Zinc-dependent alcohol dehydrogenase family protein
Amino acid sequence: MKALVFQGPGRTAWQEVPDPDIKDAADAIVRVDAVTICGTDLHIIKGDVPEVEPGRVLGHEAVGTVVETGGDVRSVRPGDRVLISCISACGRCRFCREGRYGQCRGGGGWVLGHTIDGTQAEYVRVPFADLSVYALPNTVDSFDAVLLADIFPTSYEVGVLNGGVGPGDTVVVVGAGPIGLAAIATARLYSPGRVVVVDLAESRLAAARKLGADATAGADEGPEQLIEDLTDGLGADVVIEAVGVPEAFEMCTRMVRPGGRVANIGVHGKPAVLHLEDLWIKDVTITTGLVDTSSTPMLLRMMAAGRLTSAELITHRFELGEMEQAYEVFGRAAETGAVKVALGGPQHTAVSVPDAPAPDAR
């Protein structure tokens, strides 16, 4: 089969690799039907995630069709269309029992495209399949469902829930990439007073406004002053960092109000300065986190019911064999206007469900 292989910092190739095999009775082999590229993949290629070794097949988000399962797999069978989670869960360790699958100590956590071969391939081996893939209803399109592999649960859990977004809050999202845009959509589930988005690219700010941002600002247009003006000098209740660079994180800590929360989602490859000389007196809470994907079943139900929008997120589509071209477009998002790119062949289209008939009035 062919796959996108990391060959060292700055180098990848779409090349022939061996087909995956069942290695454990809890494994499933899935044919990849729809796959996407994550900002974390760009961090890997830059060398920001040194534990990813040359020769690794990248990718941790996909929708596909089960072609083979190990003897212990009970929740899916060959022929099932499934969502592949970015997090694998052994289900037995302390953290899995707490629903903190991202911290799995039993061989799971973030392994796909990280410590084992990932999803940017024609086929992928998924460990712990019973807890790491989700059967998809016919009402959910494959290209929509692939957004539930990572960006929606990440933005919801690590951004919105960790940040404690509540009704009436002023929420600032720094970074309007896929994660930041998903944070807008999921923050709005909690009726914040306003959502303000900061980014360098006007195309992404435009996407943020379409998804419901109440105000936007370029990173070079005085966003800190804007927040001060909007909050009468108080600062934002919640600031979500969705970039992963020191300047963005430090900006977030300057925009938060006393007693507010900074929720860091971004993948950081360089140290950021924590200005405790300013923050110690402000009762500020700073959270970090890797997604657990414990919210994925709930988000999937919301998407199936039409309550979770995927509009404005996938901006470019490619055939699977155009992986290198897709990376080029995604990596130059400021020039291409790319938000999320998706790859795959002819896709499953959601089946519309007719409205239920009116109840008999007798």
About this structure: The chain is about 25% helix and 25% strand. The first strand starts at residue 2 and ends at 8.
